[in-house]
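User: Can you predict the 3D structure for this chain?
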Amino acid sequence: MFAELISGKELAQRKRIEMKEETKLLKQDGITPGLAVILVGEDPASQSYVKGKQRACEEVGIHSELDKLPVDTTEEELLHKVTALNEAEHIHGILVQLPLPDHISEKAVIDAILPEKDVDGFHPINIGRMMVGQESFLPCTPFGIVEMIKSKRIPIEGKHVVIIGRSNIVGKPVGQLLLNEHATVTYCHSRTKNMKEITKQADILIVAVGREEMVGEEFIKPGAVVIDVGVNRNSEGKLVGDVKFDEAKKVASYLTPVPGGVGPMTITMLLHNTVESAKRREK
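Assistant: Here is the predicted structure, written as structure tokens:
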């Protein structure tokens, strides 16, 4: 018996159809959700991500604007651009594509975005609200992971979740979201001893370390749900996750593929947050 796949691609398509209807209703009330994306420099991966976000916006009827700034843009100039977008009535979400050039402080830029337009969910106020279970914009990848688990009606309450990775973008916030859902959460990281003994206890195992096929079947409890957040390119140029897919599918009950798993949900939850921001503005 092989694991059942949790297709982020299929779930994202269903959610985008729903969002398309929501944007139609908002437009009938004279409101067009608007997302502004700022891209500093010529990083190829960032350019690819931004194009994907623009296509997704067009698909669901969100107005999108792209500000492409040269790599030598100063921090002051970037902060001035963010301030202008904060004040723009037609913009409901602001996204500054990371990473930024070394001479610009990511923290300063994230802090400058109005929390009510922080559709990436990285502003300290949104993170704080998430921690205490208040209404906030949730970080897109963790939000997408929780939606994927729920889409299969997988119980979370009372389950033991183990997360490998403690980044501010994925590891820490996804743990908090699942704690808010009444799971028991354990974090593993590069300093963890006896990691396999800990991960073998997981009912839900989330792997977000950015290391090619680090996790094999010896990490996984039979019947566990395995969420692979990693996207790596192996020596043959093939996209692979942090989990050895062929081994995990023989042990897990549910498993996310790479590609087509968590990735599509990240952009979809960004769209969700942008539409939600427009709805809150209407209220």
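The chain has a mean pLDDT of 96. The domain at 140-263 is CATH 3.40.50.720 (Rossmann fold).
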